[in-house]
C-alpha cells in the first residue's frame, strides 16, 4: 500500500463502503432502452456519431459559431500549468502562504500545527467568490473562500513517505497529525485586483482559517439526536471541525456551503461488535483508516467514540463576512460523501441545492427549502437550510426521472426498517435512499444548474466496478473508466418539480478507441476530449466548463484540466481544452467572478505519482513529479489557487 498514491488507497478503502443494497439495475427494460436510444444516437459506434451530431463544418455552413471561440490548448503532460492562448493564469495563493495576520513564513522543514493554522491549507478544492458589498469594482474585489480537502503526508513532510494504516502509521507523530488537522478545512481570503493582477489583501479583517478543530454547531432535524452525542458533547450539538471538504456552493444570501466528503478516511479503531452503529458505519466505509488521527485523538477512534463519525458527512454553512460566526452543519441536507452543494432559486423563490454522493453506485440528491429566499433581507435566510425536503434521484429507462423524498414515516422509512425519526433518516441517508429505490450512479460529483437553459448537469466521474449486468440507462457503460455527464431537464423548467427528463450529454474518454464508446461530437479535436469529469461551472453566458480528476500521461495522455463543453445546438457534445494542470495534479474549484472576467481554479496535489505509469516511482517530498509552482529545489510542490484572466480584459474563454 505504500506504493499506492492517495487515490488508489482511497479506492481500496472505498470498497468497504460500496453500495450493497439490492436496488435493481433496471434489467431488461433498461437494456432495451439502452440499445434503442444509444444506437439511435450513434453512441455505440463512433463512426456513426457524425450522422447524428452535426460536424463543425455543417454548423459553420448553417451560420452557427462556437460559443467557445478561444484557440484550443494542446493537451499533454509536463511539470507546468498551461492556459489557452490569449489568457493569463497566475498563482494567487499557495499552500503555506499567510492567511491570518502575523502568520509565520512558510518553512516546510520546520512546520508546526500553530504555523499551519495561520497559513493557507493543503489541497485547495472548492472556490467561491463573493463580491465586496459597496466595492467600486465588485468583480475585482471580494472574498474568496477555499476548501482544503485533504493532505498528502508523503509530499508535505520531509523524509516520511506514504504512511500505512496497516503498519500503524509508524512515521506519524502527534505534531504531524496536528499539522494535517490544521491543513484541512477552509480559508477565507480578501482578494483584490490591482492594476490587472489579483492579490490577497494582507491582514484583512475577513481573513479566516477553519480547520479540523474549529468549533461548529450541528443544526436541523438531526441536531441533538442521541446518535450525535459523544463524551465531549453530551448534547449532540457541538462538533470540532470539518474534514475532507471537497466541493461546495455559494448562496444568494452570501454564505459558503462546504461539503464533507470522504469522512471515513480519518477514523480508525475497531467498532464494538454489538454497536448499533455497525450497519451505518459500514455503509460509509467506516473506518477508512487512511490517516493516523485516531492514534492521537480518541474521537477519531471508533472504539473510544462510536458516534463521532455521525457528526461528519454534512454540508457546512459559513458566513464569510463574519469571521467570528460559528459554522453550521446543516443536517437537513443529509449525511453522505457530499461532493458539492450547488444551488439555484426555484421559480417560486425556494432554494434548490443539488448534491452528488461521490462513491461508486451511490446517488444524486436534491434539497428544496421549505421557505422562500428573501433577497431583500439576507439575514432572514440565516437558517433557511434547516427546513426543507431532501430527495434522491431515480432515473428511469424511458428518459424520465423522479425525485424521491426522504421523509420519516413515508414509504419504507419507518421503525420497521430501523428509522425512529427524521434524525435517523438523515444520519443514514444512504440506507434510506437504498430503500427508496434510487438509481445507483457512477460516482456523482458536481451537480449544477444552468439558469440560461433550465437544465442541470451531473458529473459522473467513473466506475470501473460496474459489471455488464449492472448497466442501466443512466449509467450505460460497464467498466466505466472515463465517466459521463447526465443532463437533467426539470419539468416545466421548475428546479423544485418532482419529475424531470434526462439524457446522457456525453460519455467521456478517447473517441478514437472504439471500445471506449465515447460520444464527444465529431467536431471535438484530439485535445478536446477528456476523461473523468469531476467539478463544473456554468458561466454568465450559460456555458458549461468541466474540471477533471484522474487524467494522466499514463491513462489518457494528458493531465487534468478544464475543458469547455458545448451543450446546445449543432455543437452539442463538443469538448475544447482550456487549461492544463502540472503533472500529478487534479483540477478543482472552477469559479467565475460575476462578470466572467476572472476564472479561479484550484490545482490540487501537484506532484503525485502517475498511478497508470508502471515506471513511476512513489512521489515524495524529496522526489515529487513536479515542484510546481515555485520550482525551487528546496521546496515541495504546493497546491495553489490560480486566477485566469483574458489578456487585455474581457470575458474569459471568448
Ligand atoms: Fe473530493 Fe469527489 O472528489
Ligand atoms: Ca462547481
Ligand atoms: Ca475532486
Ligand atoms: Ca473526483
Automatic annotation (TrEMBL):
<dbReference type="Pfam" id="PF05787">
    <property type="entry name" value="PhoX"/>
</dbReference>
<protein>
    <recommendedName>
        <fullName>dTDP-glucose 4,6-dehydratase</fullName>
    </recommendedName>
</protein>
<dbReference type="InterPro" id="IPR008557">
    <property type="entry name" value="PhoX"/>
</dbReference>
<dbReference type="InterPro" id="IPR006311">
    <property type="entry name" value="TAT_signal"/>
</dbReference>
<feature type="region of interest" description="Disordered">
    <location>
        <begin position="607"/>
        <end position="654"/>
    </location>
</feature>
<feature type="region of interest" description="Disordered">
    <location>
        <begin position="1"/>
        <end position="24"/>
    </location>
</feature>
Amino acid at each position: 500500500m505504500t506504493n499506492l498514491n492517495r487515490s488508489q488507497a482511497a479506492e481500496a478503502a472505498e470498497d468497504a463502503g460500496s453500495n450493497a443494497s439490492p436496488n435493481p439495475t433496471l434489467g431488461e427494460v433498461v437494456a432495451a432502452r439502452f440499445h434503442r436510444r444509444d444506437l439511435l444516437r450513434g453512441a455505440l459506434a463512433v463512426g456513426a456519431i457524425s450522422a447524428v451530431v452535426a460536424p463543425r463544418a455543417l454548423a459553420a455552413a448553417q451560420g452557427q459559431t462556437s460559443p467557445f471561440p478561444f484557440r484550443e490548448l494542446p493537451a499533454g503532460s509536463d511539470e507546468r500549468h498551461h492556459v489557452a492562448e490569449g489568457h493569463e493564469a497566475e498563482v494567487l495563493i499557495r499552500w503555506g502562504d499567510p492567511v491570518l495576520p502575523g502568520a509565520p513564513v512558510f518553512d516546510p522543514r520546520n512546520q508546526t500545527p500553530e504555523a499551519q493554522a495561520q497559513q493557507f491549507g493543503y489541497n485547495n478544492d472548492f472556490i467561491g467568490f463573493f463580491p465586496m458589498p459597496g466595492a467600486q469594482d465588485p468583480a475585482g474585489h471580494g472574498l474568496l473562500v477555499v476548501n482544503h480537502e485533504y493532505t498528502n503526508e508523503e509530499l508535505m513532510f520531509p523524509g516520511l513517505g506514504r504512511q500505512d494504516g496497516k503498519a500503524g502509521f509508524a512515521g506519524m507523530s502527534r505534531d504531524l497529525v496536528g499539522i494535517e488537522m490544521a491543513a484541512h478545512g477552509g480559508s477565507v481570503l480578501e482578494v483584490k485586483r490591482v492594476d490587472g493582477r489579483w492579490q490577497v489583501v494582507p491582514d484583512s479583517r475577513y481573513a479566516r482559517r477553519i480547520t479540523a478543530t474549529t468549533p461548529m454547531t450541528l443544526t436541523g432535524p438531526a441536531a441533538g439526536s442521541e446518535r450525535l452525542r459523544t463524551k465531549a458533547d453530551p448534547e449532540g450539538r457541538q462538533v470540532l471541525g470539518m474534514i475532507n471538504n471537497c466541493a461546495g456552493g455559494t448562496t444568494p444570501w452570501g454564505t459558503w456551503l462546504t461539503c464533507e466528503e470522504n469522512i471515513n478516511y480519518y477514523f480508525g479503531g475497531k467498532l464494538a461488535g454489538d454497536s448499533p452503529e455497525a450497519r451505518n458505519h459500514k455503509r460509509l466505509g467506516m473506518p477508512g483508516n487512511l490517516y493516523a488521527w485516531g492514534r492521537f485523538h480518541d474521537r477519531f477512534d471508533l472504539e473510544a467514540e462510536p458516534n463521532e463519525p455521525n457528526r461528519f458527512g454534512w454540508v457546512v454553512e459559513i458566513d464569510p463576512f463574519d469571521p467570528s460566526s460559528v459554522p453550521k452543519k446543516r443536517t437537513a441536507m443529509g449525511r453522505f460523501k457530499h461532493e458539492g452543494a450547488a444551488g439555484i432559486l426555484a421559480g417560486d423563490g425556494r432554494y434548490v441545492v443539488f448534491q452528488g454522493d461521490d462513491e461508486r453506485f451511490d446517488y444524486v440528491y436534491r434539497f428544496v427549502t421549505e421557505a422562500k429566499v428573501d433577497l431583500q433581507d439576507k439575514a432572514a435566510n440565516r437558517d433557511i437550510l434547516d427546513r426543507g425536503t431532501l430527495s434522491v434521484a431515480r432515473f428511469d429507462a424511458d428518459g424520465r426521472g423522479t425525485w424521491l423524498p426522504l421523509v420519516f414515516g413515508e414509504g419504507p422509512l419507518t421503525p420497521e426498517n430501523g428509522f425512529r425519526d427524521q434524525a435517523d433518516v438523515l444520519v443514514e441517508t444512504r440506507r434510506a435512499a437504498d430503500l427508496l429505490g434510487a438509481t445507483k450512479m457512477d460516482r456523482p460529483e458536481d451537480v449544477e444548474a444552468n439558469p440560461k437553459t433550465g437544465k442541470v448537469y451531473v458529473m459522473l466521474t467513473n466506475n470501473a466496478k460496474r459489471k455488464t449486468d449492472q448497466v442501466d440507462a443512466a449509467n450505460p457503460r460497464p467498466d466505466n473508466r472515463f465517466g459521463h455527464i447526465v443532463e437533467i431537464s426539470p419539468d416545466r423548467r421548475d428546479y423544485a418539480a418532482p419529475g424531470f427528463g434526462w439524457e446522457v450529454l456525453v460519455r467521456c474518454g478517447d473517441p478514437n478507441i472504439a471500445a471506449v464508446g465515447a460520444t464527444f461530437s465529431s467536431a471535438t479535436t484530439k485535445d478536446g476530449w477528456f476523461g473523468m469529469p469531476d467539478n463544473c461551472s456554468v458561466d454568465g453566458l450559460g456555458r458549461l466548463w468541466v474540471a477533471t480528476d484522474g487524467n494522466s500521461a499514463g491513462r489518457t495522455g494528458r493531465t487534468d484540466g478544464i475543458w469547455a463543453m458545448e451543450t446546445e445546438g449543432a455543437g452539442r457534445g463538443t469538448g475544447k481544452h482550456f487549461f492544463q494542470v502540472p503533472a500529478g495534479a487534479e483540477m478543482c474549484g472552477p469559479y467565475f467572478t460575476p462578470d466572467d472576467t476572472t476564472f479561479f481554479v484550484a490545482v490540487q496535489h501537484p506532484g503525485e505519482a502517475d498511478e497508470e505509469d508502471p515506471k513511476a516511482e512513489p512521489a515524495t517530498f524529496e522526489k515529487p513529479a513536479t515542484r510546481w509552482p515555485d520550482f525551487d529545489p528546496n521546496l515541495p510542490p504546493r497546491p495553489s489557487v490560480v486566477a485566469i484572466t483574458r489578456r487585455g480584459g474581457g470575458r474569459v474563454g471568448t
